[in-house]
């Protein structure tokens, strides 16, 4: 066991405190076991451990026909929206840095408005608007991807802007001093350094985007949630809870992996000597 | 414009549900979040681990999944009910899921706030003989709260926007659902969409300004 570390809140415990901590530990463990036992008993009462509920998840059919297409649906939306959001974010992020007022101010408005609209309202609106403009059809994916693009793209625009602004002023001053034009300064000096600084924040925003793809469930887009909660239980009755566990593991696993990657990028960028800019703060905001 | 006037009262009734949800969830999230952060910084390793697990699991789960799970898994399958009235039951299920979700973000915000409190504050508190809970309650948390007013404001704003997802938890009453319902019967209406967007912004923007102002005013001078 490692020696207990002193933190801001408490000293390294002495003999008395260790004893007290051990007692509290015991109480906590007992309480947690109690909660776990209660859940198990409750699940058993409702017959959630019955073989027929779990059996479908050990059959290739279930994976092949429901879960894997569900994962594909979720990932398709996430990947498409990520690509478009990155393009949208780059364009509007740079537009907000423009020297021309007539570009900078409208771009600022677009970014602020799309960040403030509740995402689901935006998705609903596009979902119902699309058939009016383009005739009948299934616009679930379209509405989801456009909605996610506009919202996450606007957040990414702020990240791009912050990344470019994080490059110390001396860098662009030096570039102008040796005779570079505005576009060369941006392309050769600012963006390469800003990219390293904003990568961690971009990846952590992609976690938010991936989580928001679950909104497709509400507009009946065939994603993992619809497959697990609606379609699969209609074939194999009573599998909702097991499906929820699978969906949860998928999202939590993938998001933790991405978050870990973002943190790793941030540490790397902090050490990096290729950029003079400090990394842009990670997205910790709730969405 | 006619649609907005015609369906205005329904939309307003829906919007009041959003506000109701926001208010209750904000209070619960702040309380739960404070409890979670107390667990995460406590001297008991098991409590810390439990807090960390809860926060990481809930934070990385989509809110839509949490809501659908509460309605379909906890309520339908396991029989967790808050009330015999279907509307009240759905309402409190949504409140539960949303508060827990927001609480994990409150917890993370507070934890970063605690990190801004200088070591000397807690050392001085211990030197005068305060216990862990006293140090946390009287010295650390008041300073931490003041340091994270702006981030907490963002959590509340996000919470208000998130109440539109309530229908995933079976609460078919909020403004987003009314809008969906209206579009479904009469077709898409731009005035209704813009009207609702403005209604949400009319609540979230002032909260942003107010918490920003409060954060500046209450900032701990160091």
From TrEMBL, chain A:
One GO cellular component from the entry?
Answer: ATP-binding cassette (ABC) transporter complex
Tell me where in or outside the cell this protein is found.
Cell membrane
UniProt domain ABC transmembrane type-1: residue ranges: 71-258
For this UniProt record, the keywords arranged alphabetically read as follows: Cell membrane, Membrane, Transmembrane, Transmembrane helix, Transport
Bilayer topology reads: Multi-pass membrane protein
Q: Which residues cross the membrane?
A: 21-41, 75-95, 107-129, 141-167, 188-210, 241-265
The Gene Ontology biological process terms listed for this entry are: amino acid transport
Primary location: membrane
- Gene3D superfamilies, per the entry: MetI-like
Q: Name one GO molecular function term.
A: transmembrane transporter activity
| Pfam families, alphabetized | BPD_transp_1
The record's PANTHER family line, in alphabetical order, gives: AMINO ACID ABC TRANSPORTER PERMEASE, MEMBRANE COMPONENT OF AMINO ACID ABC TRANSPORTER
Q: Give the UniProt family note.
A: Belongs to the binding-protein-dependent transport system permease family.
What is the protein name for this chain? Glutamate transport system permease protein
Source organism (scientific name): Nonomuraea endophytica
Lineage runs: Bacteria, Bacillati, Actinomycetota, Actinomycetes, Streptosporangiales
Automatic annotation (TrEMBL), chain B:
Q: Where in the cell is it found?
A: Cell membrane
InterPro entries to which the protein is assigned, alphabetical: AA_ABC_transptr_permease_3TM (IPR010065), ArtM/GltK/GlnP/TcyL/YhdX-like (IPR043429), MetI-like (IPR000515), MetI-like_sf (IPR035906)
Instruction: Name any Gene Ontology BP term.
Output: amino acid transport
Keyword Transport attached: yes
| Superkingdom of this protein's organism | Bacteria
Parts of the chain that traverse the membrane: 20-42, 63-83, 89-110, 138-160, 188-215
Keyword Chaperone applies = no
Task: Spell out the Pfam families in the cross-references.
Answer: BPD_transp_1
Gene Ontology CC entries for this record: ATP-binding cassette (ABC) transporter complex
Q: How does it sit in the bilayer?
A: Multi-pass membrane protein
* Entries under NCBIfam families matching the protein: HEQRo_perm_3TM
Which protein are we looking at?
Glutamate transport system permease protein
Native source species: Nonomuraea endophytica
């Amino acid at each position: 066991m490692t020696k207990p570390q002193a933190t801001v809140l408490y000293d390294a415990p002495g003999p008395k405190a260790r004893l007290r901590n051990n007692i509290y530990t015991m109480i906590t463990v007992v309480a947690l076991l109690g909660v776990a036992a209660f859940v198990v008993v409750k699940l058993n009462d409702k017959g959630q451990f019955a073989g027929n509920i779990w059996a479908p998840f050990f059959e290739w059919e279930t994976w092949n026909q429901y879960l894997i297409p569900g994962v594909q649906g979720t990932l398709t939306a996430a990947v498409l929206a990520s690509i478009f959001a990155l393009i949208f974010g780059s364009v509007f992020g740079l537009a907000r840095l423009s020297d021309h007022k007539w570009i900078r101010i409208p771009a600022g408005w677009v970014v602020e408005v799309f960040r403030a609209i509740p995402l689901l309202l935006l998705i609903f609106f596009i979902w119902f608007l699309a058939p009016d403009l383009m005739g009948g059809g299934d616009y679930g994916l379209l509405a989801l991807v456009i909605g996610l693009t506009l919202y996450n793209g606007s957040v990414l625009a702020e990240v791009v802007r912050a990344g470019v602004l994080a490059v110390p002023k001396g860098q662009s001053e030096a570039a102008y001093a040796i005779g570079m034009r505005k576009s060369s300064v941006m392309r050769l000096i600012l963006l390469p350094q800003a990219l390293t600084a904003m990568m961690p924040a971009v990846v952590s925003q992609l976690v938010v985007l991936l989580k928001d793809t679950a909104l497709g469930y509400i507009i009946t887009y065939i994603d993992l949630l619809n497959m697990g909660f609606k379609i699969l239980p209609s074939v194999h009755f009573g599998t909702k809870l097991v499906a929820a566990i699978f969906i949860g593991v998928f999202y939590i696993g993938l998001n933790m992996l991405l978050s870990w990657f973002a943190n790793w990028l941030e540490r790397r960028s902090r050490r990096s000597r290729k950029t003079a800019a400090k990394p842009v703060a990670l997205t910790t905001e709730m969405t | 414009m006619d649609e907005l006037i015609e369906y205005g009262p329904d939309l307003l009734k829906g919007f009041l549900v959003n506000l109701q949800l926001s208010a209750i969830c904000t209070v619960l999230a702040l309380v739960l979040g404070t409890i979670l952060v107390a667990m995460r910084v406590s001297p008991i390793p098991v409590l810390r681990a439990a807090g960390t697990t809860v926060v990481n699991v809930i934070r990385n789960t989509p809110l839509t999944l949490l809501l659908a799970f509460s309605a379909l898994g906890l309520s339908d399958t396991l029989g967790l009910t808050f009330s015999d009235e279907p509307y009240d039951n759905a309402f409190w299920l949504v409140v539960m899921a949303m508060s827990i979700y927001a609480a994990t973000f409150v917890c993370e915000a507070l934890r970063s706030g605690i990190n801004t409190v200088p070591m000397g504050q807690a050392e001085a508190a211990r030197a005068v003989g305060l216990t862990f809970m006293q140090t946390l309650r009287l010295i650390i948390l008041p300073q931490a709260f003041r340091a994270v007013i702006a981030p907490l404001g963002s959590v509340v704003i996000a919470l208000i926007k998130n109440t539109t997802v309530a229908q995933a938890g079976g609460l078919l009453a909020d403004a987003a659902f009314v809008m969906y319902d209206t579009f479904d019967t009469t077709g898409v209406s731009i005035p209704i969409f813009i009207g609702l967007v403005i209604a949400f912004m009319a609540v979230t923007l002032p909260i942003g300004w107010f918490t920003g102002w409060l954060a500046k005013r209450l900032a701990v001078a160091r």
